[in-house]
Design goal:
Shape: elongated
Helix content: 25-40%
Number of strands: 6
Number of helices: 5
Radius of gyration: 26 Å
Strand content: 15-25%
Largest sheet: 5 strands, mixed, barrel
Length: 250
C-alpha cells in the first residue's frame, strides 16, 4: 500500500466517523449514545492526521524537487516500502461508514443468545393506574419473577421490541442492550402467546397480560405474555437499550 493510499485511508475513516456521528443516528447501531463525543473526536483526529501527512508529503516532495531538479534517476528519501495486498481491504469499512452502514444487530443475533439474567430486586414501587401500563421487558420480567405483592397480576401492560422467531414455533418480543457497544450486547426476551409470529425484526408495541405459567412472584414464573393486541412501530432511536421507546426524529 503506497503512502498516498495510507493517507487516503486516514482521511476516509475520519470522514466516515464524522458523518456517522454528526449527521446521522447510525452510530447508535454500534455504540451507546454516550460515546458519540469520542467518535467525533476520533474522526476529527484521523482527518487531521491524514491532512497533516498529505501536507508534509507535499512539502517534502517540493523540497526534494528544488534540491535535485528533475533528475528522474534520483529516488533518495522516497518510501518504497509496501504492505500486503490484503491491506487494501481496510478501505471497505472506511467506505461503508460513508455509503453503506452495516446492518444493526437483530433477530438472528437474538435467536442465538440466551435472555439476560434478571438482577435481584427486593423492593418495588407501586404501579401507576395507567392501562395499558407501559413497561420495559426487563421491568416486566423482574415484576413477574420477584414481586411478592403480585402487582402485575391481571394488569394490562404494553411493551415494545422486535420479533424474534423461536425454533419449533412461536416468537419472542426482544430488545438487545448495549453496555458499551455491539461487542458486549445482551438480550432480553419475553415470549408471546396468542398471536402468529410476525416477520423477524418487525418492531411492535404489544399489549397483553401475564401468561399464567409457574408461580407468580417466583423464579418459576414465565416471562411471557398473553397478547391482546399488536401494532407495528418504527424502530426507536434508543433501540439498543431496554428503555421506553424514543420515537425517531422527524
Amino acid at each position: 500500500m503506497k503512502r498516498t493510499a495510507q493517507v487516503s485511508l486516514l482521511v476516509l475513516t475520519g470522514l466516515g466517523l464524522l458523518h456517522t456521528a454528526l449527521f446521522t443516528d447510525l452510530y447508535l447501531r454500534y455504540v451507546k449514545e454516550g460515546l458519540r463525543p469520542l467518535l467525533i473526536i476520533s474522526g476529527a483526529l484521523l482527518l487531521l492526521l491524514g491532512l497533516a501527512h498529505a501536507a508534509l508529503d507535499r512539502g517534502s516532495a517540493d523540497e526534494e524537487k528544488h534540491d535535485h531538479g528533475h533528475d528522474p534517476g534520483h529516488d533518495h528519501g522516497h518510501d518504497h516500502s509496501t504492505a500486503p495486498r490484503i491491506a487494501w481491504l481496510l478501505f471497505l469499512p472506511a467506505l461503508s461508514l460513508l455509503f453503506y452502514a452495516p446492518p444493526a444487530l437483530g433477530a438472528y443475533t437474538a435467536s442465538h443468545a440466551g435472555s439476560e439474567a434478571v438482577k435481584q430486586q427486593k423492593r418495588f414501587a407501586a404501579l401507576p393506574a395507567t392501562s395499558p401500563l407501559p413497561m420495559t421487558l426487563t421491568d416486566f420480567t423482574t415484576r413477574v419473577q420477584q414481586d411478592k405483592e403480585l402487582a402485575i397480576k391481571g394488569r394490562s401492560v404494553e411493551m415494545t421490541g422486535f420479533a424474534t422467531p423461536v425454533r419449533g414455533g412461536g416468537w419472542d418480543l426482544t430488545r438487545i442492550i448495549f453496555t458499551c457497544c455491539a461487542a458486549d450486547a445482551q438480550t432480553v426476551k419475553v415470549h408471546m402467546y396468542g398471536t402468529p409470529a410476525p416477520p423477524a425484526n418487525t418492531w411492535l408495541a404489544v399489549t397483553g397480560t401475564w401468561h399464567t405459567q409457574g408461580a407468580l412472584g417466583t423464579r418459576t414464573a414465565a416471562a411471557a405474555l398473553d397478547v391482546h393486541g399488536t401494532r407495528n412501530i418504527a424502530q426507536p432511536v434508543n433501540a439498543f437499550t431496554d428503555d421506553l421507546p424514543l420515537t425517531p426524529s422527524s
